[in-house]
Give the backbone structure.
Amino acid sequence: MQTFLEEVNERINGVPIQRCYHCRKCTAGCPTASYMEFNPNRVVKMIQNGERDKVLRSSTIWLCLSCETCITRCPNEVDIARMMDVLRQMAIESGIGARERNVLKFHEAFLSGIKMGGRINEPMMMVQYKLKSGDLFSDITLAPGMFLKGKLALVSPRTKDLKSVQDIFEKTKSS
Ligand code: SF4
Ligand code: SF4
């Protein structure tokens, strides 16, 4: 039977995470590390120790912004952002989901937006998120100001090769 470490490495399909020598450069640059239950490099250690349940139930994997600062700083090219993605997917597949209220709904709305247009259309994504979460009015007053400052586009351009993006969703669904 595969260990937790082997399973994560197989899904990352890149540099094995045991290349990490815990220099903590990833954690030092991570914009959300101070809010996380476990620092990014600590998660690597926990995976090596086989702490599957603790990792998949932790808020850390849902607080990662996928900004990729960590991999740009890592001297060993350990792809922490990809690792967090893999862990989120494993948590969903294991029926654990996310501990933080509504974070999974935001995640679903984000992915659904990418699947539909190949890139994010913020207003559409917010509509989807609000419908899924039932949190309809909490930050509605921010929208006009954001439109005026050009932070929200009504119509977002679609990715030219949408089919390739949708193929990725199909492939990851069946793998
Ligand atoms: S920067 Fe890379 S080597 Fe350093 S702790 Fe993070 S993952 Fe490990
Ligand atoms: S991708 Fe995630 S773990 Fe890496 S620096 Fe960004 S927020 Fe932190």
User: Anything to note?
Assistant: Residues 29-32, 40, 64-70, 80-81, 84 surround iron/sulfur cluster (ligand 2) (CB under 6 Å). The chain is about 55% helix and 0% strand. The radius of gyration is 18 Å. The chain has two domains: 4-93, 103-174.
